Structure formats: C-alpha cells, structure tokens
Batch of 4 targets.
Target 1
Amino acid sequence: MQYMNKLRQFICASAVSLYSLSSLAASLQVAPISVSFAPQEKAKEIWLTNTSEQPIRAQTRVLAWSQVAGQDQLSPTRDLVASPSITEIKAGEQQLIRIIRMVPQNAAVEQTYRLLIDELPSSGQPDAQTGLQLLLQYSIPVFMQPAAGIAVRNGVTQLNQVEFQYRNSQLAVKNNAGSHIRISELSYINPNGEKIPLINGLVGYALAGQSMRWDVPQLKQMLPGGKFEARINSDGLAQTLPVQ
C-alpha cells in the first residue's frame, strides 16, 4: 500500500473552519521539525506539546520515504519505530516520543523516512458553529546519515554530484550524492543582475541516489541567459545552481 502525502507541507488540516482564521492556530506543537541519526545513534527524541485547554490524542508512525518518477512515496518500514505509538497529552503538558532504530545501518547511502504525527478525533463534540473538528498532521523528515555525506566547503554544499535541468516550467534534480539536499529560496537572476524570487520558502528535498522535480513558474520578467540561485541545506548563503 502506498501512502500519498504532500511532503512540502509540514502541517495540513483535515478540515478548515471558515468563520474565523484564528481557529487555524495549531494546538498540537512538535519539535524539532527534522531529525538526523548519526551512524552510531540508536534513538532520537521528539516532543509533542499541547497548547490547548483540552486533552489531545495523537498517533505517531514512521514510514520509509523514497522518490519515484519525480514524486514522493511513503511505504511501511520496520527500520524505525516511534514509541509510544498512541498517546494522550493533557492540556498544557508535553509528551516525549522516541524514534528507535531497529536495525544497524550499513548502507553507504543515506536512508530516509517520514515521522507522521496525526492528531486523533477527540471524544468531545465538534465545534458547534461549523460541525467540524480541526485535525492536524505533521510530517517530519528523518535521515539516517551515512559515514560520508555530501561535501561542504567553506560553509557551502558542493553540488558536483547533483544534476539540474529546467524544462517546461519544471526544475528536475538528479542527486547522485550519498545524502539528501534540501532546496529553498529559489530565485532567477537576469543577465543584468535583477533578482526575481520564484519560491520564497521550501522547494523540496532531492534524496540520495534519487530524482525529483518541481513546478517552477516561468515569469515574463525572466530574460534568456540568466541563472537560477537557491539555498541548499542549512547553508548561510544561496548559490548558483548548475542548471543545464
């Protein structure tokens, strides 16, 4: 069974109240929002916080994360488990979730997963004005790092093992490196130096040894002969992408 998920959004609502934007405030908070296992680490911690005045029930599970034909795919795995899998968090309190490695890591290529945290329906009544309950899902990227990851020099991630193409308003990335790259703050720089923002936040992840593609707007202001620029991983500065 394949699990479909919009991975570019860390939080998604199953129902949206139309009468007040303030109702969209998330009462279930999660930290951190990304997890990386060093080669010898056996467990990591995630904290769930209930900021509401009512108890919250939540389910946690880990799925393997891959990319097939330019699309994110999730599938069952036994490599990692989340404990507890179902919990109730009292108002104003926190719950510790442990992500536990069940198998040793011998791969030279980074292994990737998603920790899904689903708010479960409460036993109380739905909102009287809407007849709906606002339920959240968090999708947290989890990485099992290899012994040697992608190279970083002078604070800049090296892209010599990554191929970029821009065709038909799509940015395609083939990542031949041993660990993922995270692409954000994508812009186009015209030959005259004019900077045109295209995607201000997260573009997405290209996982190790896999290919991914994203829709990127083709704006009239983009002149021929320019270049694409983006921030890679946690680099302090953006860099020019070697787009073919």
Target 2
Amino acid sequence: MRVLLDGETDLFGLAQLVAQNAGGMVSIEDPESHVLAYSASGEAADPLRIRSILGREGPRDYLRMLRDWGVFDRLHRTDDVIDVPAHPELTIKRRLAISIRQPSATPGVAPRLLGTIWLQQGDAPFETGAPDVLRGASAIAARIISRILDAPSTEALMVQRLFGVRGEGVDIPSVAGALNIPANGPAAVLGFAAGDGLSDAVAGLIRLHASAFRRDAVTMAHGARIYVLLPGFRSERAVTAWVRQVVERFDTDKSIALHAAIAIPVADLAAVAGARREVDRVLDSPADSFPRGRVTTLAESRTAVLLGEILDLLRTRPDLRDPRLDALFDYDRGHSANLRDSVEVYLREHGEVRSAARALRVHPNTLRYRIRRVEQLTGMSLADPADRLLLEVQLTLRSGETG
C-alpha cells in the first residue's frame, strides 16, 4: 500500500488518494450529509452514489434507513471504521464509513463532528489496508475542514488588520467603505478582559451590548480579549458611563469580573491599531493598579502602566538590584523587626514623620529611630531625593520578598 499523503491537499485530492489506496469510490460529507468532495466514479457506482453526487447530498430515503440501522449513532460515538453491508434488494453496494471529528482541547467535552468519509466498494474488494487508509484520511480531513471553518471572512480580515493583529498597514478608505463607517474624525477604542479569559458566549454578549449602544460599532475577539471600535465618537464621559454599565451588568447578572480600558479620543481609523496596543498595555497591568475600579482610561492609568512596565524591565536585569537592601532585609529577619514596613510608610507619606507614625501607630521618635537605622544599614540618606527615589523603586521591585 502506498503512503496516503505526505503534503497539503484539498478534500477532492484527499478523496482521490483514498480511492487509489483503499480501493473503491469515495465521498466526503458534512454532518448534514451534504457532499463536500468525491473521487472519480466508474461504472461500478451504484444508484445511491450517483444520486448523492448529482444532488450534492444523500437521498432522504437512504438517510432514513441509515438512521434506522443505527449507522449514524455509531458514527457519532466512535472513531473506528464502520462496515455497512450491501443490500442488493435496494441496489446498494457495501460501504465503509468513518467519522471526521476534531478532538476538544477541553477535558470532558465531546469531539466536534465535522463530517464523514464514505468508501463504496466497486467491482473488486477493498484493499486489505482500507480501514487504516480511512483512519488516516479522517485525521487529515479534520485538519482540512477545520482550516476552512476557522478561516476568517474577508470582513473579519479587514477588521483584524484595522485593529493591527494581522500584519501592518491597512487601506483605510477601503475598510471604511466596506464597514460603512467614517474614515476621519475622532473615535474610541475599548478593550475588555476577564481574569479567566473571555468565553465565546461572553464575547458575543459584549458584541450585542456594543451594537445596541452604537449600531456602527465594530468588534473583534482576539485571544482572551474583545475590542470595540466606536467610530466618530468623541464623548469620553458617555463612553465611560456605558462601559461601566456593561461591567456592572456582567458582575451582577453573570458574576463575571470584567476589566475594561478606554482609549479616547482616537484621531481616526489609521490610529486604531496603535490605540488597541495602548489598551493592551493597560489590560496587561495588574487589575488592582486601575485607578478607579475595573474601568479606566489611558490618561487615568498612564502612571500605573508606565511604572509597571519599568519594573518589569528592571526585573529582567538582576544587575540593577541594589545589594544595599540585603542588609535591611537581613536585619529584619534576624531581629524580628519591621524596618522595611516603617520606611515604606515613611516614603509613602513623603517623609512626613508624624503622619507616617500615625499610620504605623508608633511614636514619632520611634519612627525617627527606625529611619536612622535604615540609613545606617543601607548607607543611604533619606534626606537626599535621589536616594529616596531609588529606595522606593528598589523596595517595589522586591515587593515579593520577605524581610
């Protein structure tokens, strides 16, 4: 038996290869028994095959018999090859059949049924290895059909390019014309995310809410997020109020904690991709860094985003960790002290001893002693603005370490 396939092909090419290697005549059908592809037919093709190919689907009377014989139930339950005996009284020849299924990546979820491969016997018996050929063809057909089903439409490709997730550069007039949206003028770009990612159902609901808010809203799901473009929109207040309503509704009705970032105003459609990247920078930052709840704008979150990214860069450079803090941490561990907490509060209170002491619930003189001890251990002067800035950055950088 020859090798079935060693490269890419389409369903018609696959049907012909199966016929050549397994013997007989092949048809590939979708889950509703519509014929997707078939191999060449000879004089041995029975009336059922001829009717199926000419009508592009299995005849209803035959499909009903297959259900009565339990063939469809078996195809849904198993990945194995099913032998359907000949019925000379019905002028139906013997067939082998196998389902085309796409395994689910989610444990406990049944495979997705993509179709069926049918092999009709001709004048000669099937090849000895016909079942193995069908098993291999089933796996290849699943990949081909999955690619077809998952391939985005022309409009979807335009939207992906508009948001900058599929290559660089987009013909703005063409996109605006195809989507029937204005090419110029301010717009808003929004991003929604959730801690566990967004399911298809949640993304679909967000699309519905966006279209109800603006009929010309353009949405795109990508990865674990969904993005919304509101073309020709300039009111930050109205957009923010609507986004907060959506977040609150999901929280109340679905117990889903959404986070949202808003870029507004976006100059025009040419700036949408850049705005989407800025939105991602906000959504990539820790949720507790959002200035006001779970909805924020780029302007509100700029400080938190930039500080977070600076700290991320510093974490990739171990040589930029200040070793002088080791002495402070060692002292706290060895003396069951809390100098680190004291100096963090002191820095947060901008060096105001009395307000920091109140926050720590200690006497101001106690705090002054602790600050002097920190200076002795680290060799830093907390009267020096540069030392204060460096110490605060280093303490934040090492926030996960215990004293």
Target 3
Amino acid sequence: MKAKRTRRTNIVYSADEMAWLEANQKLPIGEYHARFAGRFKRDDVSAANLHGLRKRKGWKTGRSGFFEKGAVPANKGKKMPFNANSAATRFKKGQLPHNFEGAGHERIDSKDGYVILIVDEVNPWTGAATRPVHKHRWLWERVNGPVPDGHALKCLDGDKLNTDPSNWEPVPRALLPRLSGRFGRGYDDAPAELKPTIMAVTKLEHAARAKAKNAGAGE
C-alpha cells in the first residue's frame, strides 16, 4: 500500500521577522540563518528555507558568485598540502605532454586529406610558439608569395600528399566545382594525360561565363 503523501505546510513569518529578514538580506546565508534563528528562536526554519524566501522575494544579496576586481583568494600565499597521489601525476619542469607536436611534425587532416605541418612561427590566435599550416600552401607561398584573393590552390596531379609547389596552381574558387564538384569534369580521378586538357577547357568555360556575366551587368 502506498504511503499517503502529506502536503508541506508553508512557513509563516511575523511582521517583525520579515522586516528583519529584508533588512539583513545581504548577509551570507550561513550567518543569515544563524542570526535569524537565534534572534527569533525559530528552530523550524532552515538555511534552505531562508534562501528560498530570498529568491521568491527577489531580494538581492549583492554577490554574483564571481571574484570582484582586486579581491584576494582565501588561499593566497598558502602552500598546497603534499599529496603523494597528486604529486605522482603532476608535470615535471620541462616535461612535455605525450601528444606534443613540435615544429616539423606532420599529420594528415582526416577531414580533407591535406598535409598539416607544424611550423616554428607564433600562432596569432593562441600566442603559442608554433602553429599548424597546410603544408602545400605554406611551401607554395614561400616560393610565389600570397595566394591571390578569390583564388585557391588546386592540386594538379590529384595527390594531395604531393606538396611540392610545382604541383599546385592558384585558380579562381568558382572554378573548383567545375573541375571536381558533383557536376564537374572529374578532374581529380581523371587519367594524368587528360588532366591538362580538362584544366584548360574548364578555364576557358569559366572565362567565357565571367565575360558574359560582366557584359550583362554593364547593360
């Protein structure tokens, strides 16, 4: 047989008690409860009850839960007690994590198949001493300068692992779908002897479309 659920009785506060509670609303909850219970002999009221009351009334305590500017942490200057288990797992000075990737490290991007190279240059986003780059672009720009605006580097032989600058050519981004997109000419999968022809024809088509578009815009 199920036990009968009893209805909780609301706590009633006198006018004097409410006046005191509102006047002292900014006290920390522990002190708030202790002083109230001692002053009014209310052993039936818990700290949780007073906390709920403050929330229902919308009384502000003046505390956000965040450290204010200039506030001093309670443990400042205190040495952490020694713990053997904690000490055994701490990093030692000069120790590097197992997944550290220093300058010169390479990996294959699982998303698009490009080679990612870690170079000895400051990361402008994180401030780290090294940063990841697409190896083919990094090498190409060292030889040829920045990739022109509106262009992307296209792999000529279809092998993204071949990062030699001579294997990459800047082409308009709008050209890429015509080469290997869903409705493109299958450039990446085409035989090596056909790739130059596909590239040349696609460039001509792109130039013709761009010319016609510009002519239409000028009318």
Target 4
Amino acid sequence: MRVGIRCDARPRIGAGHLIRCVALAEELVRRGTEVVFLGEVEGPAWIRAQLDSRGLPLIPAPAPATELAAAARRAGLDAMVIDSYETDPACGRELRRAGLTVLAIVDGDLRGQEADLYLDQNLGAEETATDLPRGAVRLAGAGYVLLRDSVRLLRPVRPRAATRGPARMLCVFGGTDTADAAPAVTRLAAETSAPFRATVVAARAGTVAALAALPLAPGQSVTPIPPTDRLPRLAAGADLAVSAAGSATWELMCLGVPAALIWVAGNQRLGYEATVSRGLTAGLGNPAEYGDPAVRTQAIATLRRLLLDPAERDALARRGHGLIDGRGRERVADALLGHPRR
C-alpha cells in the first residue's frame, strides 16, 4: 500500500500538523507501507529534517482539487491523509472519486472535507456529536493521539518524582513561536519571584535579546536555546514545561511531565480548555491578554504555585501520564490500513 500525506509546515502556521503526521508516517512505514508527503515545508532546518532524517519524500501539492487527485494517481497512491486547514474542501471528494481512501485529521471543525475516516485527537472529542458523511468512520479522543518515536521511546513506566530546589523549567511555544510568546511568558515566570532554572526555546529573531533584558529575581536563571528536535529529551528532564497548547501537550503528558499551557490561536483553545478543565494541565491563558491586571495576576499566581509546589506538579504529571499511553498512532494505522479499499 502507498499512502500520501497532505500537510504543510510554515512559519505562519507552525509545525504541529507536520509533527503529528510524521508520527503516523513512522507507524505506517514500520508496517511496510510506502509514505510520501505532499505540501510545503519551510522554516528552521530541524523542521525539514523531520522528513529527511526518516527518508520520507516530499513533493509539491497542487492546490486545485482535481489536480491534487491527478497527482495522487500519478504517484500511485492508495490512500491520502489530509491534515491542513487551508486545503480546498473539494479535495477529499475528488480523491475519493479517484479511488483513494481518505483520512482527514481535524480539530473539531470538519471544514467541509469529505473523507472515509475522520481523526479528531482532541480530548473529549469522542463526547461531541458530529455529522459525518454516510458510511464515514470517526476516530475521536485522546486514545488516538499521534506521537513520534522520539516521544514513545522515552515514556516512563511512571512519572519521575519532582526534584527539590529550584524547578527546572522548559519553555517552548511551537516550532516557530508564531505569537512571540517566549519573552512574555518568561517575564511572567520572573515576576513570580520563585527560583527556577529555565531553558527557553528562542524560535524568533530578537528573542534572545528580549530574554537577556528580563529582570530576574535571586535564584532565577534563563538559558535560551535555538529550535531543536531534542525537545522530548529536554522535556523528560524537566520539572515543569510551559508550552503552547497543541501537539506538544500530548507529548508532555505521555512523558509524565507536568505542563502549564498558554493558547495563542483559536484552534489551540479547544485543547487548552479541555485539558485545563480536567486538571490535566495548568492554564496560563493567552499572552495577548496579559495587559489585563486580573488575567496577569491569575497567571502569575498559577505559575508561582507550580514552581514552588512539587506535590502539585506530581499530581499533574500522574493524571496526564495515565491518559496518554502513546499507542494512538497504532489505532489510527489499524483503521486506515484496515479500511476496505475502494
């Protein structure tokens, strides 16, 4: 079987779609399936390396639905995975007409895309009623979270107990930090006055200088690093991770790392509210609203409590680790490869 994956990674949209599709590709390749990506991959070298290091080919994806279907036929594809908010909704229909099985990865809204299978890995998605095309299969909820080998191989049997002393904090806000959140959230941590040793991924020009200018309290330190593919390993050694809601949320929960989340885009808010309301992560809100004294005060109080209370961090880690078992991609691959061929 030969499967195409239609997704993009660009500075404006981030790398989350690509990361979760790479996880599915790893599982498909492990089962002897050929995989080819269709789309655009731009940004830091580590993003393109997600494909190159795994030997996953990338070819251009025509925008018109009929042309994409024709390209799929030329490539000899049996199925297509679509993970894109920008792809023409007609693509699924045209691909199915061309005889391909179509899996659409969605975040709540189907966006009019016609498919044989729909994957919504958001927490609580299985509890939400969604109208699907006749005969379509829905894979919904945290049991279908797609995680890469680099995360799955580091999953501990149980979360590591929190260390005493200054908390080791990892701050990462997506592969490209599209909202420039790193300086704003690190400033928030500094205002807690709690001791910490922070490693901050500086994904944007000017972030290093902005971090260096932050006034730090005694016992606080900030070390900026460039974007890297070593984040799962860095996270596994952290006492607390501060991240944008998205693919990284599931990685942190699988690794048993307590997480405090922000949201910076509408599509992130669904996952943010679902995990925070269930006590699986802590919530720091939207940095764009930190100008509101009440919002800022609440976020500072939440972060200070996490930095100073190992027991609270342990509780978050246990709950998240118990929910995400790392086998979601196996369940998705079972459904895709086992779906009747057209």
